[in-house]
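User: Predict the structure for this protein chain, please.
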Amino acid sequence: MKFKKYIFSMLTVFSLTTSCNSFLDIVPDNAPVLDQAFAMRTMAERYLVTCYASIPPSFSLTGNAGLLAGDEFWLSSEATYTGYANWRIALGNQNGDNPLLNFWDGNNGGNSLWIGITNCNVFLENIMSVPDMNDIEKEMWAAEINVLKAYYNFLLLKQYGPIPIRDTNIPIFAPYEESQLPRNSVDECFAYIVNLIDEARPSLMEDVSTPNTETGRITQLVAVALKAEILMYAASPLFNGNVGLEASIRNRDGKVLFDPNFSMAKWQAAATACKEAIDFAHARGKALHTWTPFNQANTYQASTHHQMSIREAFNESSNNAEHIWIDSRSLASGAVQGNFMLPRYTANASTGTLLGFMSVTLNMAEKFYSKNGVPIEEDISYPYNTRYGLTAVPNTDAYRFDLVAGRQTVRLNMDREPRFYASLAFDAGRIYMNQVGSDASAYNVDMRLSGPSGKVNPNFFNWTGYASKKHYNYRTEVAGSNAYTPRVFGYPLIRLANLYLYYAEALNEINGPSAEVYSFIDLVRTRAGLPGVVESWQSFSSNPGKPTTQAGLREIIKRERTCEFALEGIRYWDLLRWKDGIAELNTAITGWNINQSADNAYYRTTLFYTRSFTERDYFTPISLNERRRNPNLVQSGGW
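Assistant: Here is the predicted structure, written as structure tokens:
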């Protein structure tokens, strides 16, 4: 595909715009080269894709903060995973001099987003001079890049807090002081970003018309959805009325960067944007994804349909009406999927490609609802106090594709919602796969020390006893002959379910519970095979009135987002914008004792690490080098 091929090529013009003294001053004296870059349409298109190249690769196991900086995944050894800067943040190794995941300078696991902004500015300064393009196409491409520039600024804003706004590049021979820009206020940053999107939107194509060549391009659909997400961040506690340590910073001249006053208008703007994005998506055929069996001659349980719909909502790119924007450069190749997939899960296949070292924490396994659609600690019918006790899996159709009949497992793994079984692979569980075209294979999982999916590699192995089903497509094949055939997919940056729950969250913050709030939560729950939120709490919760209060429904929406987007890299950023990091990210990291073979020894909770998340960790510090280059940059709060 032409668009993707250009992305992977990383043409020479990209390298020619990265040499600089400061990442706020990166326009070299290369006018002749730029003349060539925009001398014709084909060259300009290559530069267009170069601008997209700074999107952080979503499937980077080392560079995606959402995957390993939070509490969803864990690794086994610092010695083995030395290059995993995101996990080192979770281990408490972030520092103010040479920060990890440095997307400002572009090191320690991060690529510089300022380079992306610079490339966007270069493109915008030159695109109108291309001779063999009509004005409509030039304006459309310029609009794409303006939204992309807004996105890069947003990524910096949510990671570092208020940032300098640099709408145009600073000439190389300009006085040095012109590049020493201070931070703008939070409100100025959000207003600038949203304005870029609003001005660009009319010139964008509404949606991709030829997915094979345009998937990943910014469209009006992407723009309205991105605006909705950005305004949700602007309205959330981290940026709206924050008076904490991390919001205490001031510029050298005393300028206040965080407005300490809460604004309901920000939630109203977010709700309006979310509804507009949802309506725009619906009008263009977007809907929650539902699974179509590969072999429709087979019959399946309703729970299987729910689980497969949830898995594919994330990991199936073809004909997925739920995906609004995907990272088409970042494909889940065989190597990527193998890092999540358990080794030898077919019991007779052995391949070094399958490592399964991305281990899901026991904490996350407990976040999913019971089969009744409420938290297990609230379910009056769920044996929460004995959830770690062993029990035999009954030989019933209810667990046909979920658990191995007759095997011993903990009660925690039984009677859970479909998203639990759709998201997690674990000992005594089953993995439903399309194996060699049969579409009727569910493989038993044995993760004990003696089991085929246990600790078979001394360096790369599952550390907690839980793995992610979400990160490999069910049509990926591992045959008995050791043949490994992955079905690749692009990483969804925004999907429709996210907009539904954003909208419900915003409405609840404005007016509290309402029929409209319930309806958008229930759209997501119905796809997951759960009753409506009010029905579930009234029938099964120890707090049946919880959905009827604003505070109660706020807690429910947060838990709903955790269950729906589990393991997708969203929870970490949600916890930050809600300012729930201290409450949630200081919990102990635990799992099962994977070095044991007997059930009663394997199923013992094992402490791996006790996290320490403090108030300063809500924002990433700016490096000492960058603060020396630009003394007008004040450090992030607490660093």
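The longest strand covers residues 323-331.
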